[in-house]
Write a structure and sequence with these properties.
heterodimer; A: alpha/beta; Rossmann fold; four-stranded antiparallel β-sheet; 11 helices; about 30% helix; B: alpha/beta; eight-stranded mixed β-sheet; 12 strands; about 35% helix
Chain lengths: ~325, ~325
């Protein structure tokens, strides 16, 4: 299968007034063409920083890319010059964000905002760009595209705005769509529609998607592969079926079991003691070790690297759950 | 056990809003003639999507908002009628925990101050020493330690702050606690800790709880009964198992199937719902859910259905469900 994206050993730090934030360490994963990769993690796990790094929208400084490669369509995006990246961003790699209200400009009509993007990347006039915008809005199943084009962002509902964002992001036939918590601000019934839409777009437009979320349900619903992040590192990376059935990393397993199920009533939830680390002062060794039941002496000193323990199943752990605890 | 602790009768809350360029004043009905019985020692869930009025209803019951019309009774006393003085006693008995522990705790007060303030307000405890002991005891009951007493809210993580907020509500020995999205600002691993804690507290203190949440899986874990709200109206009240196993109202059904499951084997091909929640400024006539409803009949567009009993465990406001019986 063709790899559209490969992130290798990415390490990023931020220099802030309070000190150095060790934001990313040991981040590796890849995405095959036409697939949806979920990046799941809790607050401060580094999932959004990873996404911003791929699209090169991290402010440098304070960010500092210490190490690593981001190979997109065969080339390392970290090596691109600024102008080169400007041509790729929005054209080849597109991004949508959690809160579409802040991503859209409140003082311009949808028509202007969408056609600006199209005109920036394609040499066509306003009239043609608006026509293309109309077609894109139809693609994302907006019932009355002309009417929506003539509106300001605040006149649309949250779900509608997110559709407009998706339509804008895909209007230049991007190859990779990065969706950063695209449904977190939406209600479940709307979320359901947007997730179905992302899946349709993937099929119809042949794009690859990175979906960033804190919600395991969202990942299980539409992703093919999943990278679990904790404290700035990828701790497990495999396909979604394997991960939900046989997680090897104690964190993935703990996280899965901490979610209250919808389909059954249970007496007690599994908890992971403590809370996520402060990345100004991350714990030495494996960043999960202070909360880990399986921690060994070694885990406190030496951070484990991400290794392939079964075919296409990567974990960063010295003492994984034995044989993958079967969750069935 | 089956005593009613709180009861509402046609409770209604309207807000005046200014809309559009001309700032025309319009009226929206956030809570629309709600009739709800809450029983002693039960946990009842109030679920629905954003803007459905669940928080407004919670705030009315907590005394933070006054209803436009309707009545509500707490332990058979009519709250809407009694004077301020008597009301204060009831304020002690009904406590509320808010969604965001970053804004519900005063950043300039230590944990010890935060927890002893309600004791002073309600004149509980003879002297400072007794109050300190109570603070300590309550902190321990939510899994915090004595060394935390002199610290400020910013020194704690989100989960710990929510523990402090829960402790603040518990310290005055309430009978009824209203929890407004207590875990939605928290990470999953921390949410699990708080949910377990709330369940323990409920069992240990024999409390009655109203849990407001948009997350049905949280409601399933925590509640005995669940009321589903849509655009200010309660559309279904059911015992938990009945609601999840055989949801009565078509909206409840859509809500339940919309939740993404954590097992990829249960994926659905297509989105189950169509359309979006209409604006409260311009509600449809009749049943508010009719425009999105797969079971819609002619009558649904003309008049609004009332909550009627479907079986021993469920009540539901739907003409189609009524017809089927």
């Amino acid at each position: 299968m063709e790899r559209i994206l490969e992130v290798k050993d990415l390490k990023i730090q931020f220099d802030t007034e309070e000190g150095t934030v060790y934001a990313l360490e040991n981040v590796s994963f890849h995405l095959n063409k036409g697939e949806i990769l979920g990046i799941i993690g809790e607050t401060g796990s580094g999932k959004s920083v990873t996404a911003s790094a791929i699209n090169r929208i991290l402010p440098v400084p304070p960010a500092r890319i210490v190490n690593g490669e981001i190979i997109f369509q065969g080339k390392d995006v970290l090596q691109y010059k600024r102008e080169e990246m400007n041509r790729i961003r929005g054209k080849k790699i597109s991004m949508i964000f959690q809160e579409p209200m802040t991503a859209l400009n409140p003082v311009f009509k949808i028509k202007e905002q969408m056609s600006d993007v199209i005109m920036h990347h394609q040499k066509i006039n306003r009239k043609k760009a608006v026509k293309q915008a109309t077609e894109m809005l139809e693609q994302v199943r907006i019932p009355d595209p002309e009417m929506v084009l003539d509106k300001y962002p605040h006149e649309l509902s949250g779900g509608m705005r997110q559709r407009v964002m998706i339509a804008t992001a895909l209007s230049c036939e991007a190859d990779l769509l990065i969706a950063d918590e695209p449904t977190t601000a939406l209600d479940v019934t709307t979320q359901d529609q947007i997730l179905a839409l992302i899946q349709d777009m993937r099929k119809n437009l042949d794009i690859s998607v990175i979906l960033i979320t804190h919600d395991f349900g969202v990942v299980a619903e539409i992703c093919d592969t999943v990278a679990v992040m904790y404290g700035g590192s990828v701790v497990e990376f495999t396909d979604i079926y394997t991960l939900t059935k046989k997680p090897y990393h104690p964190y993935s397993n703990g996280l899965l079991k901490a979610i209250p199920p919808v389909d059954q009533t249970i007496e007690k939830l599994n908890t992971i003691p403590g809370s996520v680390p402060n990345l100004l002062k991350p714990p030495p060794g494996c960043r999960f070790h202070p909360r880990c039941e399986n921690a060994l002496e070694k885990c406190k000193i030496d951070p484990p690297s991400l290794t392939e323990i079964e075919e296409n199943h990567f974990i960063a752990c010295y003492n994984p759950i034995k044989g993958g605890e079967d969750n069935e | 056990m089956n005593n009613t602790i709180l009861k509402t009768q046609d409770l209604r809350k309207e807000f005046q809003v200014r809309v559009g360029f001309l700032q025309k004043e319009r009226k929206i009905t956030a809570v629309d003639n709600v009739n709800l019985n809450i029983l002693q020692s039960e946990t009842i869930g109030l679920v629905g999507e954003s803007g459905c009025g669940k928080t407004t209803l919670g705030r009315i019951l907590a005394g933070l908002l006054s209803p436009t019309s309707g009545r509500f009774f707490y332990k058979e006393k009519e709250i809407t009628e009694i004077g301020k003085k008597k009301n204060k006693q009831i304020r002690r008995e009904i406590q509320m925990v808010f969604q965001d522990p970053f804004s519900s705790l005063n950043p300039r007060m230590t944990v010890s101050d935060i927890l002893s303030r309600p004791l002073k307000v309600f004149k509980i405890g003879k002297n400072a020493k007794e109050r300190t002991n109570m603070v300590l005891e309550t902190l321990e009951s939510v899994g915090m330690k004595s060394e935390h007493m002199s610290r400020y809210p910013h020194e704690f993580s989100g989960g710990q702050r929510q523990r402090i907020a829960v402790a603040r509500s518990l310290i005055v020995n309430p009978d009824f606690i209203i929890l407004d999205e207590p875990t939605s600002a928290l990470d999953v691993s921390v949410q699990a800790q708080i949910l377990n804690l709330l369940l323990d507290i409920k069992n240990n203190f024999q409390l009655t709880m109203l849990l407001i949440t948009h997350d049905l899986s949280v409601a399933r874990f925590q509640c005995d009964r669940i009321a589903v709200m849509y655009m200010g109206r309660i559309v279904e009240i059911s015992d938990k198992e009945a609601l999840f196993n055989s949801p009565a109202h078509p909206y409840t059904r859509i809500l339940l199937t919309s939740i993404p499951r954590t097992d990829p084997a249960q994926r659905r091909e297509k989105a189950v719902s169509t359309g979006e929640v209409p604006s409260l400024l311009n509600p449809p006539s009749g049943c508010y859910f009719a425009p999105r409803c797969p079971l819609k009949m002619d009558i649904c567009e003309r008049s609004a259905p009332e909550l009627k009993r479907v079986n021993k465990h469920q009540t539901c406001a739907c003409f189609a469900v009524e017809n089927k019986r």
